[in-house]
Amino acid sequence: MVARLQVQNNVDLSARQEEILSIVHHQGFATIEALARHFDVSTQTIRRDIIHLDEMLLLQRFHGGAGVREATVRLGYAEKRITAAEAKERIARLTAARIRSGDAVFLDVGTTVEAVARELRGRHDLRIFTSSLAAATIFSADQGMQVFVTGGVLRGPDGALTDEWTRDAISRFRFDVAILGFSGVDDDGALMDFDLAKVAVKQLAAARASQVIAVGESAKLLRPAIVRVLAAEEIDVLVTSEAPAAPISERLVKANVDVVFDCIDESGVLQNGSV
């Protein structure tokens, strides 16, 4: 049962619209089809509700669904940590299961990657490399972990290390796996982000890795961003929280990206799959 999100008293919402808002904020993204099944109403009814909520700036309407409104007004880092937290944990479990004993793993910055770091605690068979002070701190109490932290200039509350010191450190290593976060996906399936300095680090880590795993909740698959990170053909695996919409899914499959997802259906049952 999703807790009802509190809205201002002067906001005119039906009970269903309030629950839609709560579901979207809890999951990060919800498709029109899933919401229609949940409420046992038509997709047209849900679409009208989403249009109303979007016009009131309470969520963002995307093709095929709705997500938290952060594409034009980006959330603070503390808010990002609690947005779609359960979805990020499911993504983290799927991602950690793909990491083999003995792997050298690069961890990017971001709240979803931090969730992966928490899943990797206790894996003393791994060598962890990261440009994220937040991710490194997650391992700090585990004396058995091998954790290498790049140097660089600290940028903002996410603990990202950037600049030439970071890139120089990364260029000295080879990784079995690079786990990268992203902020959006372009029409051609390319990963997108907002920060040029962080993008340069992501690109170099990907170039030094045998396998690239991109991690992010499904709302990001329909969200615009401004800086191109990697073409779809440069991604090996995408781990997300819900099956991507058909246009994006088709482009990723054409690029031979292994798309893996793990979601909770309208009856509360955990479903997983791949494309």
From TrEMBL:
<dbReference type="InterPro" id="IPR014036">
    <property type="entry name" value="DeoR-like_C"/>
</dbReference>
<dbReference type="InterPro" id="IPR001034">
    <property type="entry name" value="DeoR_HTH"/>
</dbReference>
<dbReference type="InterPro" id="IPR050313">
    <property type="entry name" value="Carb_Metab_HTH_regulators"/>
</dbReference>
<dbReference type="GO" id="GO:0003700">
    <property type="term" value="F:DNA-binding transcription factor activity"/>
</dbReference>
<dbReference type="Pfam" id="PF08220">
    <property type="entry name" value="HTH_DeoR"/>
</dbReference>
<dbReference type="GO" id="GO:0003677">
    <property type="term" value="F:DNA binding"/>
</dbReference>
<dbReference type="Pfam" id="PF00455">
    <property type="entry name" value="DeoRC"/>
</dbReference>
<protein>
    <submittedName>
        <fullName>DeoR family glycerol-3-phosphate regulon repressor</fullName>
    </submittedName>
</protein>
<keyword id="KW-0805">Transcription regulation</keyword>
<dbReference type="InterPro" id="IPR037171">
    <property type="entry name" value="NagB/RpiA_transferase-like"/>
</dbReference>
<keyword id="KW-0678">Repressor</keyword>
<keyword id="KW-0238">DNA-binding</keyword>
<feature type="domain" description="HTH deoR-type">
    <location>
        <begin position="13"/>
        <end position="68"/>
    </location>
</feature>
<dbReference type="InterPro" id="IPR018356">
    <property type="entry name" value="Tscrpt_reg_HTH_DeoR_CS"/>
</dbReference>
<keyword id="KW-0804">Transcription</keyword>
<dbReference type="InterPro" id="IPR036390">
    <property type="entry name" value="WH_DNA-bd_sf"/>
</dbReference>
<dbReference type="InterPro" id="IPR036388">
    <property type="entry name" value="WH-like_DNA-bd_sf"/>
</dbReference>
